[in-house]
Amino acid sequence: MTRRLITHETVASVRIRQSLTLALVADLHNAPYADLLSAMRQADGILIIGDLLNRHRDGFDRAAAFLKDAPACAPTFYALGNHERGSGDWEAFYPLVRKSRVTLLDNAFVSFGGIVLGGLSSPGYGRPSASFLRKMAARPGFKLLMCHHPEMYVSAVAPYDIDLTVSGHAHGGQVRLMGRGLYAPGQGLFPKLTSGWYFERRLLVSRGVTNSAGVPRLFNPCELILLHLEPKER
């Protein structure tokens, strides 16, 4: 069974109106998830940060079940990752997403729990469709963006007034030595953005909740992040 940690992270900001706890579920890849449900029930909202599917294997039974189980724990929001874009199952899976109680944020944003919450979808190939970020950044309040790819932060997200971006995709670098990952998709060898906080705490990267690679993860347990947003006095 995959070893998973529950990691707690806290952000305080004058833009946050009320306390809010969000469960960050990155890179589920159609894997078992029953052990995550108790932590997810502690959250006010659940963020699926891409790759609910596994494009390297046929089928989406657990991903489909997650579309039902997650909203039963808390309101759930979904941003698309590269495995959704590249999966041969996406055309069959997409109607299940639309019929579910999960809110799909496909290059879109909504208001939730006193914050502005957006989803920047994986482009598959080429540049992401980030034009909606201008409108999102103009909204008052704390802006939180789901963006599956941390390597897209500098070019696609940083130019806008987005308070916090949460990502996955890097799988913690697969093997971690002296606090550094060895390899990450999209970043290659010795990647810089694999786990934790970057860019003065404006980017938070999850190591993901499962191991979808053909090689084991070493010194790099999977994790579900419980992100606590707290108001801060001016």
Describe the structure.
This protein has helices at residues 37-40, 61-73, 82-86, 90-99, 132-138, 153-157, and strands at residues 4-13, 20-25, 45-49, 76-79, 103-104, 108-112, 115-120, 143-147, 164-167, 176-177, 180-181, 183-184, 188-189, 196-198, 203-205, 222-231. It is α/β, with parallel strands linked by helices and 234 residues long. The protein has a single domain (4-231), classed as Purple Acid Phosphatase, chain A, domain 2 (4-Layer Sandwich). The strands form four sheets. It has a six-stranded mixed beta sheet. Strand 10 (176-177) and strand 11 (180-181) form a beta hairpin. The radius of gyration is 16 Å and the shape is globular. The termini are far apart.
Can you give me a brief rundown of this structure?
By secondary structure, the protein is an alpha/beta fold.
Structural topology:
Elements lengths: L3 E10 L6 E6 L11 H4 L4 E5 L11 H13 L2 E4 L2 H5 L3 H10 L3 E2 L3 E5 L2 E6 L11 H7 L4 E5 L5 H5 L6 E4 L8 E2 L2 E2 L1 E2 L3 E2 L6 E3 L4 E3 L16 E10 L3
Parallel strand pairs: 1-16, 2-3, 3-4, 4-5, 7-8, 8-9, 9-15
Antiparallel strand pairs: 2-16, 6-7, 10-11, 12-13, 14-15
Name the helix and strand elements from N-terminus to C-terminus, one letter apiece: EEHEHEHHEEEHEHEEEEEEEE
- Fraction of residues in H or I helices: 10-25%
As a whole number of angstroms, the C-alpha radius of gyration is 16 Å
Number of distinct helices: 6
**Highest-level CATH class:** Alpha Beta
Biggest sheet: strands side by side, in what order?
1-16-2-3-4-5
Main sheet makeup: 6 strands, mixed
Provide the β-strand percentage band: 25-35%
Structural class: alpha/beta
Low-confidence segments, ≥5 residues, pLDDT <50? none
Topology, number of strands: 16
Shape: globular
Oligomer: single chain
Reported by name, the CATH topology is Purple Acid Phosphatase, chain A, domain 2
How many structural domains are formed by the residues? 1
**What is the straight-line distance between the termini?**
46 Å
Query: What is the average per-residue confidence, as pLDDT, rounded to a whole number?
Result: 94
CATH architecture: 4-Layer Sandwich
